Each structure stands twice: as C-alpha cells, then as structure tokens.
Amino acid sequence: MISGYVNANREAIIQVAIVGDSKQLKSVRAIIDTGFTGDLTLPRNIIDQLGFTLRGFQRVILGDGSLQYFEMFVGVVIWDGKMREVEINAAETNSLIGMGLLEDYKLEMEGRPNGEVRITSLPASLSNTV
Amino acid sequence: MTVRQPRYSKEEFARRGDEIYESQVRPQVEEGNHGRIVAIDIETGAFEVGKNSIIASDLLLAHHPDAQIWFVRIGYRAVHRIGYFEAG
Q1: How far apart are CA B34 and CA B64, in angstroms?
Q2: What residues of A are in contact with residue B86 (Cβ under 8 Å)?
Q3: How many domains does chain B have?
C-alpha cells in the first residue's frame, strides 16, 4: 500500500522514491492527477540530476485544449515496495502522478484537508500484456 | 547506459513523425490497434507497436539502437492528456 494525504490546497499528495541512473535515490512529493494519462512528470532539472536517458518525443494535449511537444524519458521508481520502470515527461509544473502509474491499483481518498490517500494493488488484470 | 542525444528539434520530430505516420505507418497499424502506441524512428521509418511508449520503444531500439523516436497513440491526436497546467 502507498499512502499520502490531501493538503489544504485540495491536492492529493504522495511521496515517491525515484531511482537514478547510478542507483541514487531521490524522494519527490507528487500530486495525484487523474486528468493526466501518463505515468509521472518531473521538472527537467530533477530528470538531469537523476541521469535519465531521453527516449523520444510525444505530443500531449493540455488542460486548455492546446497541443504541446513533451520529452519522454524512461526511469525507475519504487512503487508499492518494488522497482518499477516508468515513463517520465519533463514538465515545469509540480511533479504529477498520472493514471498510468495507477494502472492496476485502487485509489481511495478523503476529500478534505489532512484527509488520507490510500493506493492499493488490484488483482492481476488480463489487460497487462504487450 | 548510452546517452542518446536528439538530432532534431521537437518541431522537426513532430513534422517528420507525423509525415511518416500518415503516409507509411497508419495504413498498417490502424486496424485492431486503437489506443496502442507506435514508436517511429524518424530517420529510417522503422516502427513498433506496444501497449505503452516504453514497450513500443524497447521493441524498436532492439533492432534500431540509435532510433530518433516519435510516439503516436493510434487513433488519437496526442499520446497523453495533462489536465493540470499553469496558465499564463
């Protein structure tokens, strides 16, 4: 189980440990954003610190309907106690956890300040194939 | 791990990637792959399809280790949607 909290600004926050290219760990506070369909966004300076390799470019649609190009990196996070390879988009916002990381997990939260956020794994799904 | 440097601007990735996708890739992948990701090498036109961008690009890099990759979500305008953005 992964746990977090809701802050006074109505944001659901969890702390995630990111494993850099030379195995260094960095703890990042990220906002759960169910409107984001990717895995994780990180500011470019953190991506550079962790030494992740650029994998390619993607077109992304923003909340205002505009299209932008985003860099995509592949990195590793510790998720529910295990190392997990994730897609990382460079974005100069707060770090965001998207629906990709939540795949096959259940998200529960208490929608009030200091409310609890709980993310628990779901039974294996048949959709989890290439 | 090799440090891969992009050889093109992001606009050039998009321009070449879209052109290759529309002319060569789309007719081969569109049927039965709605919502899946295609990773395209914008220099050779080589491509692979997968459930997500990591899987598709791992498959492509296995035979094109120097690929310059543009991603497309089959049947969609964008690979991802980000709800949160900073206005202004």
Answers
A1: 24
A2: 92-93
A3: 1
